[in-house]
């Protein structure tokens, strides 16, 4: 069948979930990708996905338009229909026009959209075009905001997050019910979102998955007393977790083993994060597109995230590399791992308990190796894209109105459109 695949960014190995879902679906289906283009450097990512797409349309949304959208959303914040800023940012009439054009041009059978950012666009298509829609929520966005609200102390930030939380809950409650199939990243988020969605909707768990052929260990387990923190350092939750770890937990580890080193892996760190390297035992590196060497060299991988919704992929990638992981109980529950069998878990707020979990692995290489092996086995059985591919294809073939679709590999002709940065026929 022919699938219109809509994301708020260009899928790539950096955006793991959308990239691998697109890749998995392309084995049986023809994919037409449409994404807004706000940062021009995303054009470089097209080469990562062009072999999996029949057509690629990137629609320019200028920063001026995006900021204007946000300003309008702020000024209308008292309105019942006011959008969260993350959704308002992406609004574009040209984007909607392009989506409708691609539906006609590529003879689309089903629409797939990812993340709350594009829900307004999906609902416009629902009203105007009679096609089944699959929406991938990834996680329960309002729950993530609720966690951030609980952790924030600054009164103005707290007020802003509370306002965004109320708007996000309204969107989840009222706007998702129109879609034929909802996808979600975990059973925990399914239950949370299920309590919010206004009417009963089909919701299937397709968990965070890892390319286990790519993420595989080539060297023996490290015994160098080295820790690695691997995260999206542009995300506030990741920076908050890192600073908490370095200020409150790492000193406890150093009390027993002062030779322990920490490698922070991530791009665009804040000046506060950069200042951590004043201690020579802490290094900061941007692994670029390949983080595997850093994960392979580490004795223990750290995931002390205070917000469970963020960086779950990073934890799974470390597990797939057979690197033993110490995370929080919230993250372990979200991943459905068993602490003590697949990884170790302790609340990051309990600094002593978290430090002791790390030290137990540094002091016992046999335990670290065993935990690393069992962690990888968990990923192979429950979180590899091979295990998810069959489920995804079953979901698509059982959508209402899909039975008539012919499995065809007759690619449509290349067309040039003036409002897109890229359209390609592969």
Automatic annotation (TrEMBL):
A GO MF term: glycosyltransferase activity
One Pfam family assigned to this protein is Glyco_trans_1_4
Which keywords accompany this UniProt record? Transferase
Superkingdom in the source lineage: Bacteria
**What is the designated name of this protein?**
Glycosyl transferase family 1
The organism is: Dictyobacter vulcani
């Amino acid at each position: 069948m022919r699938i219109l695949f809509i994301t708020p960014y260009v899928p790539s190995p950096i955006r793991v979930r959308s990239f691998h879902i697109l890749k998995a679906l392309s084995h049986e289906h023809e994919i037409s990708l449409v994404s807004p283009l706000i940062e021009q450097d995303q054009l470089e990512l097209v080469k990562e996905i062009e072999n999996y797409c029949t057509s690629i349309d990137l629609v320019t949304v200028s920063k001026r338009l995006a900021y204007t959208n946000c300003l309008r959303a702020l000024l209308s914040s008292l309105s019942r229909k006011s959008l969260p800023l993350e959704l308002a940012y992406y609004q574009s009439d040209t984007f909607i026009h392009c989506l409708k054009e691609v539906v006609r041009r590529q003879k689309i059978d089903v629409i797939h959209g990812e993340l709350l950012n594009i829900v307004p666009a999906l609902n416009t298509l629902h009203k105007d075009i009679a096609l089944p829609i699959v929406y991938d929520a990834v996680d329960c966005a309002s729950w993530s905001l609720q966690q951030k609200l609980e952790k924030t102390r600054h009164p103005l930030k707290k007020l802003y997050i509370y306002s965004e939380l109320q708007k996000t809950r309204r969107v989840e409650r009222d706007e998702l019910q129109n879609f034929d199939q909802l996808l979600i990243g975990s059973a925990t988020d399914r239950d949370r979102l299920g309590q919010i969605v206004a009417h009963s909707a089909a919701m299937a768990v397709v968990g965070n998955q890892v390319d286990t052929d790519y993420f595989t260990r080539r060297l023996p387990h490290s015994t160098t007393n080295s820790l690695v923190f691997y995260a999206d350092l542009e995300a506030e939750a990741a920076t908050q977790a890192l600073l908490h770890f370095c200020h409150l937990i790492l000193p406890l580890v150093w009390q027993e083993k002062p030779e322990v080193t920490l490698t922070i892996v991530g791009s665009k760190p804040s000046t506060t994060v950069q200042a951590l390297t004043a201690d020579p035992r802490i290094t900061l590196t941007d692994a670029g597109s390949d983080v595997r060497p850093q994960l392979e060299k580490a004795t223990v991988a750290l995931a002390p995230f205070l917000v469970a919704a963020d960086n779950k992929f990073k934890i799974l990638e470390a597990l797939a590399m057979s690197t033993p992981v110490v995370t929080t109980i919230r993250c372990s529950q979200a991943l459905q791992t068993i602490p003590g069998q697949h990884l170790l878990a302790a609340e990051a707020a309990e600094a002593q308990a978290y430090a002791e979990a790390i030290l137990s692995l540094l002091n016992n290489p046999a335990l670290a190796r065993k935990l690393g092996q069992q962690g990888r086995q968990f990923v192979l059985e429950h979180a590899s894209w091979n295990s998810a591919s069959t489920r995804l294809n079953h979901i698509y073939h059982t959508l209402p109105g899909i039975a008539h679709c012919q499995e065809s590999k007759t690619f449509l002709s290349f067309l040039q459109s003036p409002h897109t940065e890229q359209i390609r026929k592969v």
